[in-house]
Amino acid sequence: MRIIFATGNEGKMREIRMIMADLGLEILSMKEAGLFADVEENGTTFEENAVIKAKAIAALCDDIVLADDSGLEIDALNKEPGVYSARYMGEDTSYHIKNANLVERLNGVPDEERTARFVCAIAAVLPDGRVLETKAAMEGRIGYEERGENGFGYDPIFMLPEYGKSTAELSPEEKNKLSHRGKALRFMKEKLKEVL
Predict the structure, then answer these.
(1) Does residue 69 carry a catalytic annotation?
(2) 129: which DSSP letter?
(3) CATH topology of domain 2-195
(4) What is the mean pLDDT of residues 105-120?
């Protein structure tokens, strides 16, 4: 039995392998498993999108399929970009441009009102069709400029005030301990241990 994770994102796959390693199962990305599907994530919540993606890929194989949907919610912007985080300003727009746009939209918003969170929902579809779900968040604030080289996406503008760093300034080990995806993956790992 293998785990196929419905992503092509190498940064994500590194995080997943580090956290799920002790399950003792081979963990492959869709590409590594030779699976290709263009899944329309038309859910209105992170949970719905994760389930849609996992079910679509599970239909193509007999493995355990995991999918996540994650994004950034900024309170002062009505929780934007939310479920549209990857598609915000267009999928081909660089995160450097997306980050600059969000920072600019918060111009004049004081520190205490720049609250935000990364949210991650993970769905697992088992070979027998059962669906497991987990969700977690990481609270922080939106900074005033990009900082750090370690992360991807919105990490350079997402500040963790208690650490005085952006998530892009954390080491991969620190990030896995604190991140929304790290937490949701650890919850999922425990659920998988119960059924394997």
Answers:
(1) yes
(2) S
(3) Maf protein (3.90.950)
(4) 98
SS3 54: helix
24: tokens are 């003792």
Residue 53 above 90 pLDDT? yes
pLDDT for 172 beyond 90: no
Average pLDDT (146-155) is 92
- DSSP class of 76: G
Q: Which helix (H) or strand (E) holds 115?
A: strand 115-125
Q: Which is the catalytic residue, given 69, 92, 111, 128?
A: 69
Side chain identity at residue 78, one-letter code = N
CB 134 within 8 A of CB 191: yes
Average pLDDT over residues 67-77: 97
Domain ranges of the chain: 2-195
Cα Rg of the chain (Å, integer): 17
SS3 assignment, position 81: strand
